[in-house]
Write the structure tokens for this entry.
Amino acid sequence: MTKTKICNKCGVEHPVTYFYKNSTKAHGVQGECKDCWRVYDAEHRMYLNGKRVNKTHPLWKPGRYKTLDDAWSHTEIDNKTVEGHVYVVSNKAWQGWYKVGKAVKSEDRLNNYQTSSPHRDYVLEYQEAFDNRNNAETSIHECLRSKVSTHKNEWFYTDLQVITETIQEVKYINARSAKEVTKTMDETIEGFSKAQLSEDR
Ligand SMILES: [Zn+2]
């Protein structure tokens, strides 16, 4: 005789095999049946390329997606978050050429490239995280266009090292100017409290 269980969501009695296993529950299975769980899961969770995405992520949206571009348009992504990566990809079909681009997550963007490439032969060569990927990418492209004579759109014909060094330079400059802003703010606050103190006297 097969064991049965009543789903605490739809109230229907199903064989226990119709419930997902869950060792944290008293009966070793979920309280709701597979049908009810799938509905709940689709409405309350986001999966990106099979991986669960935390609800606190700015681009969270319930559903299962292969890449972020399947869940959102580029404009929506740009409006929701400026943080992200500047990445470098190559493809052996174009020896010596490197594409420098920006994305919320470079691995996610790579998945997108692979989908449109029959040989899945794009390689992620390098990535760096920035508070504002748009500004970072613009600075990096400008620097590279002045250094590298052969380039087309976002593709550069040069040594990978020239590109990675340029990205690191921009990262360093960004970090330094962020520090200067904080320093100026600290000085302003200090100045303010001194002024406040003399007024109080
Ligand atoms: Zn149910």
In short: The beta strands are 4-6, 13-15, 46-48, 51-53, 63-65, 84-91, 97-103, 122-130, 151-152, 155-157. Helices lie at 34-44, 68-71, 74-80, 106-115, 133-147, 160-200. The chain has three domains: 4-44, 46-81, 82-184. Residues 46-81 form one domain.
